[in-house]
Design goal:
Domain Ketoreductase: 3-178
CATH architecture: 3-Layer(aba) Sandwich
Distance between the termini: 38 Å
GO molecular function: acetoacetyl-CoA reductase activity
Structural class: alpha/beta
CATH superfamily: NAD(P)-binding Rossmann-like Domain
InterPro entries: Acetoacetyl-CoA_reductase, KR_dom, NAD(P)-bd_dom_sf, Sc_DH/Rdtase_CS, SDR, SDR_fam
Order of helices and strands: EHEHEHEHEHHEHHHE
Organism: Paracoccus homiensis
Bound molecules: acetoacetyl-coenzyme A
Radius of gyration: 17 Å
Helix content: 40-55%
CATH class: Alpha Beta
Family: Belongs to the short-chain dehydrogenases/reductases (SDR) family.
């Protein structure tokens, strides 16, 4: 029987590429999403991958969502914590609400998803947790005090939990994408985006599939000795 993989924010952007790549690699995939019903429906129509709606910022909704996925598809072996949002603003303009929304989704979201799943992974003595952090959690980014703090927090979470999971064959790793050609990056003003691309030695934005291939490797049995690691996939923009 194929292993079950759950991808948060799995119907759009990098998450959609991850869901598809895991399906192509033989997993039964569940794609979680929070809001965009239309995109989720189009994604299921195109790929045949089931989508499940809840917010990763809500602990009880995560626990219920995981239960539903496991009842329908079987025990989850691979969790990809990909869901993320931006609320960019220079710090002097950043509101407490912009801070809270980003921390709740991008940092607490990975706790909310991993915590209810953890006892099952320990019992089954196998698991793969893959956290999608960001180059901006490694280097910081102007107008992203909230996002950079959350994404740096994701890396600390990864390293701590890797130590706890190791004896039960649960690996916990992070990927730090650089600037990838998704709606999130396309929302950055064009002039700013051009100046960012000028800082990428390979001279282009990354493709979502380039992140998805890293996920497929970390999820595989071959990656059993890789845990607590951070894979930077950023076109040479920053060496952590
Ligand atoms: N470094 C230094 N100064 C910068 C800067 C930078 N990187 N970016 C902008 N500034 C300056 C501007 O030049 C401008 O200066 P002046 O006032 O002297 O002209 C000032 O900051 C901007 O001030 P505004 O009051 O006009 O700013 P705003 O309230 O309109 O906000 C912004 C604009 C939100 C900062 C906008 O420029 C922006 O979105 N920047 C991009 C931020 C970014 O890179 N986000 C990453 C999104 S992608 C992502 O997050 C995915 C991932 O993981 C990689």
């Amino acid at each position: 029987m194929s292993k079950v993989a759950l991808v948060t924010g799995g119907s759009r952007g990098i998450g959609a590429a991850i869901s598809k790549a895991l399906k192509d690699a033989g997993y039964t995939v569940a794609a979680n999403y929070a809001g965009n019903d239309e995109a989720a429906k189009a994604f299921t129509d195109e790929t045949g991958i089931k989508t499940y709606k809840w917010s990763v910022a809500d602990y009880d909704a995560c626990a219920a969502g995981i239960k539903q996925v496991e009842e329908e598809l079987g025990p989850i072996a691979v969790l990809v914590n990909n869901a993320g949002i931006t609320r960019d603003a220079p710090f002097h303009k950043m509101t407490p609400q912009q801070w809270k929304e980003v921390i709740d989704t991008n940092l607490s979201g990975i706790f909310n998803m991993t915590h209810p799943l953890w006892p099952g992974l320990r019992d089954r003595k196998f698991g793969r947790i893959i956290n999608i952090s960001s180059i901006n959690g490694q280097k910081g980014q102007f107008a992203q005090a909230n996002y950079s703090a959350a994404k740096a927090g994701d890396l600390g979470f990864t390293k701590a939990l890797a130590q706890e999971g190791a004896r039960n064959n649960i690996t916990v790793n992070a990927i730090c994408p650089g600037y990838i050609a998704t709606e999130m990056v396309m929302a950055v003003p064009e002039k700013v985006r051009e100046s960012i691309i000028a800082q990428i030695p390979v001279g282009r934005l990354g493709e979502p599939e380039e992140i998805a291939r890293c996920v497929v490797f970390l999820a595989s049995d071959d990656a059993g000795f890789v845990t607590g690691a951070t894979i930077s996939a950023n076109g040479g923009q920053y060496f952590a």
